């Protein structure tokens, strides 16, 4: 069932935005500036108040990559450099991906969620340009260390932050409670988990 997704190519248009009239597919024409992106499965994204955007996706190697664009495609965004975020060894093939950021004018924080090959709910954290990204086995602050196991085969994953940002929730199907969704919540002081009830 995933082979069609493997063949999916998500095009990032950088030059044809002005002519991309809704409802007229002939107006969307590949341009010399087109940047091909080939996700193998799920894609998540965040933007800050300027429209500066980060797109997270798993490519055919199994790694999770970051693509940036300075603004919405239709508003003249230009492509930022590609960056590899999570090594394939830490990522379940066809994992769902969720991401949150702060509602600010510059990127001060981001959090990205996905499943490991052992079905562990996993997190990478970005805390600013100085510290960059942290995640993987060495990240003691990451949700990953909680060892929360999701139901095998589940594709449910969502994340949301409130205005305090250090307070956020991640929803998933727990292996221990597969009949409903569960949420892990961080109120800034630690993690708690509860099923929908
Ligand atoms: C759709 O695109 C074609 C080809 O560019 C153009 O001739 C036509 O006027 C467009 N139609 C609308 C409704 O924009
Ligand atoms: C999940 O289920 C698949 C198919 O039954 C199995 O091959 C795989 O080992 C399971 N993964 C885990 C982590 O249990």
> Regions with pLDDT < 50 over 5+ consecutive residues?
1-20
User: What structural class results from the helix and strand content?
Assistant: mainly beta
Ions, cofactors and other bound molecules: 2-acetamido-2-deoxy-beta-D-glucopyranose
Radius of gyration: 18 Å
CATH architecture: 6 Propeller
The helix content is under 10%
Number of domains: 1
CATH names the topology as Neuraminidase
Q: How confident overall, as mean pLDDT? A: 86
| Sheet having the most strands | 4 strands, antiparallel
Number of helices: 1
Can you count the beta strands?
14
- Strand adjacency order, main sheet: 3-4-5-6
Strand content: 35-45%
| Straight-line distance between termini | 33 Å
| Order of helix and strand elements from N to C terminus | HEEEEEEEEEEEEEE
Keywords: Signal
Protein name: Fucose-specific lectin
Signal peptide: 1-18
Organism: Mycena venus
């Amino acid at each position: 069932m995933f082979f069609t997704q493997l063949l999916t190519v998500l095009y990032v248009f950088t030059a044809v935005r002005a002519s991309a009239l809704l409802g007229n597919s002939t107006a969307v024409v590949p341009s010399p500036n087109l940047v091909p992106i080939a996700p193998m499965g799920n894609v998540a994204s965040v933007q800050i108040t300027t429209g500066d955007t980060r797109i997270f996706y798993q490519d055919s190697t199994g790694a999770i990559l970051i693509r940036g664009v300075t603004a919405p495609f239709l508003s003249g965004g230009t492509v930022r450099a590609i960056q590899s975020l999570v090594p394939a060894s830490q990522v379940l093939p066809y994992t769902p991906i969720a991401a949150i950021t702060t509602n600010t004018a510059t990127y001060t924080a981001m959090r990205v969620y996905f499943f490991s090959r052992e079905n562990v709910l996993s997190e990478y954290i970005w805390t600013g340009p100085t510290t960059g990204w942290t995640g993987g086995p060495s990240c003691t602050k990451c949700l990953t260390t909680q060892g929360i196991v999701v139901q095998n085969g589940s594709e449910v994953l969502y994340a949301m932050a409130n205005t305090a940002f250090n307070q956020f929730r991640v929803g998933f199907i727990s292996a221990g409670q597969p009949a409903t969704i569960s949420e892990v919540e961080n109120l800034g002081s630690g993690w708690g988990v509860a099923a929908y009830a």
